[in-house]
Specification:
Layout: H1 3-18, H2 22-39, H3 41-48, H4 52-65, H5 86-98, H6 104-111, H7 117-126, H8 136-139, H9 144-147, E1 155-162, H10 170-176, E2 181-187, E3 193-198, H11 203-219, E4 228-231, H12 249-256, E5 260-263, H13 273-287, H14 295-311, H15 323-329, E6 344-345, H16 346-355, H17 359-362
Parallel strand pairs: 1-4, 3-6, 4-5
Antiparallel strand pairs: 1-2, 2-3
Length: about 375
């Protein structure tokens, strides 16, 4: 047979197969087999426009597996030298299941994984462990570039998070009388996190936490006239008080401590994006995975998480640096002990103020004896 005739035959068979569905392909191959069984291989190859080897192949597969052998087989190589091992894949999957909030970068860093971040992402995607990407309109107003010009610990965002809508945490909250609200302050530049918890949602609790934090900054050499506290327009931040001279949240910040306070514009939640994103991380990395057996146990683990967040956890939105590393790089040489701050039980603090007792002595052992923090030296001026 001439080469041109052989090419035409193969083209004829390929076109017939290409234009058919899976069931039609099996039907065509079965017709080739029945014809070959009756008339032989060479007449079949001429009739169907295929090579003799193709006819032999389908006869062999049909004899070995029946009609199942007539399905298309995978063309992927059976051996890929650079593919990661099954043990490494299992390790990646187990790490992701243990901490579903971690992406490829963080999984590789925390679990000391050998594969590249691209290989880790491929394994996650193949096992349906990849979250959907955020839409473009959710990120178009990202202010990260502008925030790089802030000085560390000069601009802060403060907010209150309701904890009564956390499915994993809620049963524990009811059983052990755990806090119902989280009061959060976050430094915009470094991402340093300050946490306090209580069972009430009011301006008094916001004021107590902010006052203790401003005293803490002052003790570590941060000039308070350069400090800004930014909040939303909630009543817990004194929006019901129009006059700055009325005692309360804003009055404490600006009149007593000489710092500055800003409200974000109405209906612009993105202006407080740093503290809102911290709330999302806390929900995923703390409330959704931690188990508590008492209120004391809750504060021990909350303190550990805050220390972990401020000193160990790399932030990949800030070039993979921790808040402590960013503070150490600041040109004003800030005391690194400023990241050490106790997680406050605002209910206990309120009771201690009313009874005239020292709050931090009452709390006992669920505040670790951290360096650089003199608990008994703090006095609330505004309350």
């Amino acid at each position: 047979m001439k080469p041109s005739e052989l090419f035409m035959q193969r083209s004829m068979y390929c076109n017939m197969i290409y234009k058919r569905t899976k069931s039609q392909q099996v039907e065509l191959r079965l017709s080739i087999i029945r014809y070959a069984q009756s008339w032989g291989i060479k007449p079949t190859s001429k009739k169907f426009g295929s090579s003799k080897n193709t006819v032999k192949k389908w006869l062999r597969r049909f004899n070995e597996k029946g009609t199942t052998g007539l399905l298309n087989q995978s063309q992927a190589p059976k051996n890929i030298p650079h593919k990661i091992s099954k043990e490494e894949e299992d390790k990646i999957i187990q790490a992701r299941l243990k901490t579903p909030c971690y992406g490829p970068n963080r999984l590789k860093w925390f679990y000391k994984l050998n594969p590249s971040k691209d290989a880790i992402y491929r394994v996650l995607k193949q096992n349906n462990l990849v979250k959907n990407r955020r839409k473009k309109h959710h990120t178009k107003q990202d202010l990260r570039a502008a925030k790089q010009h802030y000085k560390a610990l000069s601009h802060h965002q403060e907010d209150v998070k309701h904890l009564k809508d956390q499915p994993y945490y809620w049963p524990q909250m009811i059983s052990y009388n755990l806090p119902r609200y989280e009061y959060t302050i976050r430094d915009t530049k470094a991402g340093c996190l300050i946490l306090a918890f209580g069972n009430r949602y009011n301006e008094k609790y916001s004021t107590m936490l902010t006052e203790l934090y401003l005293q803490h900054l002052e003790k570590h050499g941060i000039p308070l006239d350069k400090v800004i506290i930014q909040t939303d327009n909630g009543t817990e931040f004194g929006t019901a008080k129009r006059n700055i001279n009325t005692p309360g949240f804003v009055h404490t910040i600006e009149k007593i401590y000489g710092a500055k306070h800003n409200y974000i514009p109405p209906r612009m939640c993105n202006a407080n994006a740093d503290v809102e994103s911290a709330h999302a991380r806390i929900e995923e990395e703390f409330f959704n995975i931690e188990d508590f057996d008492s209120r004391k146990d809750f504060f021990i683990k909350a303190q550990a998480f805050q220390n972990f967040f401020n000193m160990i956890r790399p932030n990949y939105h800030k070039k993979g640096k921790t808040p402590l590393q960013i503070i150490l790089e600041d040109r004003d040489k800030i005391d690194p002990n400023v990241v050490v701050f106790p997680v406050i039980d605002l209910d206990e603090l309120d009771k201690s103020q009313e009874s005239g007792k020292r709050f931090f002595k009452i709390r006992g052992q669920y505040l670790p004896n951290l360096p650089g923090f003199d608990y008994n030296s703090f006095k609330l001026k505004a309350l």
